[in-house]
Amino acid sequence: MVLGFCLAFLGLFIAAFLLGLVFTHFLPLFFNLRDTPKGSFGWPLVGETLSFLKPHASNSVGTFLEDHCSRFGKVFRSHLFCSPTIVSCDQELNNFILQNEEKLFQCSYPKPIHGILGQSSMLVVVGDTHKRLRSLALTLVGTTKSKPDYLHDIERTALQITDSWKDKKQVTFCDEARKFTFNVIVKQVLGLEPEEPQTTKILGDFLAFMKGLISFPLYIPGTPYARAVQARARISSTVKAIVEERRSGENYSKKGDFLDTLLTVNTLSEDEKVSFVLDSLLGGYETTSLLMAMAVQFLGQSPPALAQLKLEHQNIRSCKQEKEYLNWDDYKKMEFTQQVINEALRCGNIVKFVHRKALKDVRFKDYFIPSGWKVLPVFSAVHLDPSLHGSAFEFHPWRWENQSQATCKKFTPFGGGPRFCPGSELAKVETAFFLHHLVLNFRWSSEGAEHPMAYPYVEFHRGMPLNIEPIRRETISRTS
Ligand code: HEM
Q1: 114, 107, 142: which is closest to 423 by C-alpha?
Q2: Cβ atoms of residues 43 and 376 within 8 Å
Q3: Which InterPro entries match (predicted)?
C-alpha cells in the first residue's frame, strides 16, 4: 500500500517534471511568436541541437540547413543549445549582428565552453573587460608584427618542418601543420623553442584540451571534458611558472615576445594574463593548421591553381639570394597565394558559425528577434550561397581577383565587427610562407580520398596522409 502510494507519487512527480520541461521549452513561443521568423522548436530540452550539429562535409552546408532554409527561408527560428534561437544564413543580417556587438547583440558561448576556456578568456568575456583585453591583443599583434624577427621566425619554423621531410615518403599533413603552427605561436607568445621541455609539456596538454573542446560537456573524471578542464589547469600552471621565472629575473634578458609586454601591463589581473596567453595559443594553433590543410587539399584537386601558385613562388624566389629570407615585400607579391588562401577559407569553413544573444528586442527588415534569444550567424551558409558566389561549391581562387571591400559582407571567415579575429594576418602569413617552401620543394599526392568534416569543428579523419617527393635536393635550411 505504502509502496503503491510512493510509486504513484513518483509517477506524478516525473509527469509534472516532464510537463514542466515541455512547458518551459515552448513558453517563449507564447510570448514572442509574433513576427519571429518561421521555424520549428524540435524536442523539449534538446530542441533541434542534435540535427544542427550532425556532421557533414565542411565544404557543404549540411542537411539541417539545406532542409530548414528551403522550408522556412534563410532566417528561421529553432531551439538550439537549450535556448530559443534565431539562425541566420542571410549575409545582411549576419553583418548587422556582427556590427552591433554590445549594442543589440552580445557574444554568448555555451556555459561548458566557459568551463574549458576559463572565465577570463577573450572569447567569453563581454563589455569593458573584453575591450580591455582586446585593445591589449591589438597592441601586441601590432608590436610583434613590426619586429624584424617576426617573419624570420615563421619561415625558420616552416623550414624546420619541411627539412625534416627530406628522407620521408609519407607525412600526416595535419600533424605536421599543427607542429608548425604550435611552434610559431609558442615562440611568439612565450619565447619558447620547439626543443624546450616546456614546449613539449604544453603541447601534450593542449592536445587533451582540444579534444575536450569538441566533447560532450560532462564533468565526470575520465571523460574528455573533465580531462580538458584538468589540462587547462596544467597549462595555466606551466604558464604561471614561466611568468614567475621571468619575474624573478636572474639571467633573464628580454625575449621580445608577448609575455615581455604582458608583464609590464598593470591593467590585467594575473588570471587575465594567463588566460590571454591561453587564448593566443588556442586561437593561433588549430585554426591555422586547418587552413593550411584545406589549402593543400584543394590545391591537390586543382592542377591549374597549383601550377599558378608554383610559378608565383618561383618568381619570388628567383629575385632572391639562395638562402635569403622572405620579407614583407615578398609577402605583398604573393597575390595569387592570397586568392588561394581566401578560397580555402571560403570553401573550407573552419568556423561555421559564432554564438550571440539579443540584448533587446531587435527588428531587422521583416524579422523580429526577441530579447534574450540566442542568435547564430552561420558563415558557411553565406560562403556557399550560390546567389552570392558563382559556382559556389567549386574551388576557384581566381574569383578573388580584383575583389572590392564590398566582398567583406559575403566573406567572414574571421568574423567581423568588434570581435574580428586579431590573428587573421598571422594565420595568412604562416600559410603563405609554408606554401612557399612546400610548392618549391615537394610534389605531393593524397593517400586516398578524404573530406574534411564539420562536427562543427572541422576535422580530417585520417589527418590527411600525403605521399611526398622532394623536387630539389640542395639544402634550404638557413641561419638567422
Ligand atoms: C585560419 C585561422 C583562423 C580563423 C579561421 C579564425 C577565426 C576566428 C573567428 C571567426 C573569430 C570571431 C569569434 C566570434 O566572433 O565570436 C575569431 C576570434 C579570435 N581569434 Fe581567430 N581565427 C584564426 C586564427 C587566429 C590566430 C592565429 C589567433 C592568435 C594568434 C587567433 C586569435 C583569436 C582571438 C583571441 C579571438 C577573440 C577575439 C575577440 O573576441 O575580440 N585567431 N577567430
Answers
A1: 142
A2: no
A3: Cyt_P450, Cyt_P450_CS, Cyt_P450_E_grp-I, Cyt_P450_sf
Residue labelled with grid coordinates 503503491: 4
Ligand 1 pocket test, candidate residues 114, 290, 421, 434, most atoms within 8 A of CB: 421
Nearest to 263 by CA among 277, 253, 252, 273: 273
Which amino acid is it at 464? M
Q: Which three cell numbers stand for residue 170?
A: 609519407
Q: Which ligand 1 atom lies nearest to the CA of residue 412?
A: 10
Q: Distance, CA 461 to ligand 1 centroid (Å)? A: 23
* Cβ contact 101:417 at 8 Å: yes
Q: What is the CB < 6 Å shell around ligand 1? A: 107, 122-123, 134, 137, 279-280, 283-284, 287-288, 291, 350-351, 354, 413-415, 419, 421-423, 426-427
Q: What is the DSSP letter of 101?
A: B
Atom nearest to 419 CA in ligand 1? 41
Give distance in angstroms: CA of 134 to centre of ligand 1: 11
Q: Is beta strand 83-88 parallel, antiparallel or unpaired with respect to 442-446?
A: unpaired
Whether the CB-CB separation of 260 and 242 falls below 8 Å is answered with no
Task: Please list, in sequence order, all residues whose beta carbon lies within 8 angstroms of the beta carbon of residue 48, skipping any fewer than 6 positions away.
Answer: 40, 41, 42, 64, 78, 79, 80
Whether residue 421 is annotated as binding a ligand: the answer is yes
Beta bridge partners of 469: 443
Compute the distance between CA of residue 386 and CA of residue 379 in angstroms, rounded to an integer: 14
Confidence (pLDDT) at 456: 80
Q: Residues 398, 379: contact at Cβ < 8 Å?
A: no
Specify burial of residue 358 (Cβ count, 10 A radius: 0-12, 13-18, 19+): buried
Answer whether 0.85 is exceeded by the pTM.
yes
Q: What is the pLDDT of residue 2?
A: 67
Compute, in angstroms, the gap from residue 463 CA to the centroid of ligand 1: 22
pLDDT at 477: 43
CB proximity list for 30: less than 8 A, separation 6 or greater: none
Cα(280) to centroid(ligand 1), Å: 9
Query: Cα(199) to centroid of ligand 1, in Å?
Result: 22
Q: Residue of the nearest CA to atom 20 in ligand 1? A: 421
Q: How far is Cα 349 from Cα 452, in angstroms, rounded to an integer?
A: 10
Write out residues in the chain with pLDDT < 70, as ranges.
1-3, 16-27, 29-33, 213-218, 249-254, 404-407, 472-480
Give the HSE-up count for residue 416: Cα atoms under 13 Å, Cβ half-sphere.
Answer: 21
Cell of 163: 627539412
Please enumerate, as own/partner, the contacts of 175-179 that have beta carbons within 8 Å and a separation of 24 or more.
Answer: 175/463, 177/288, 177/289, 177/290, 177/292, 177/293, 177/434, 178/285, 178/286, 178/289
